[in-house]
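can u do me a favor
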């Protein structure tokens, strides 16, 4: 769905049918520690660009609203993690450094057994 900023985002939902006025960011909504989302945050949100640059099915995003510049400016902060190898993704635009490098997805069955 298109955000108020005009970009496609999988996490944005709006419903204005028959007088409804619902605008929601589902990424921010599922984080209970985040301040509430506001539509103006879509202008600077990195999530649509991340989703367009990285189509990995294993990339999972977590987001929250953070206050910058002594609390005067709000921005969306995004963190990524890989659901295949359960590691943090330092740059969600690029993807998982463990899975993406070799094309091989690690598995728990690939672990070496220790000394007996």
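np, heres the sequence
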């Amino acid at each position: 769905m298109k955000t108020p900023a005009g970009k496609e985002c999988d996490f944005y939902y709006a419903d204005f049918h028959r007088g409804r006025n619902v605008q929601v960011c589902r990424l921010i909504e599922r984080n209970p520690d985040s301040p509430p989302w506001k539509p103006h945050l879509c202008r600077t949100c990195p999530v649509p660009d991340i989703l367009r640059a990285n189509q990995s099915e294993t990339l999972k995003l977590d987001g929250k609203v953070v206050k910058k510049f002594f609390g005067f400016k709000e921005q969306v902060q995004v963190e990524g993690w890989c659901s295949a190898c359960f590691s943090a993704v330092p740059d969600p635009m690029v993807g998982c450094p463990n899975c993406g490098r070799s094309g091989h997805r690690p598995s728990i069955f690939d672990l070496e057994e220790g000394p007996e």
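Residues 30 and 109 are 32 Å apart (CA to CA). hope that helps!!
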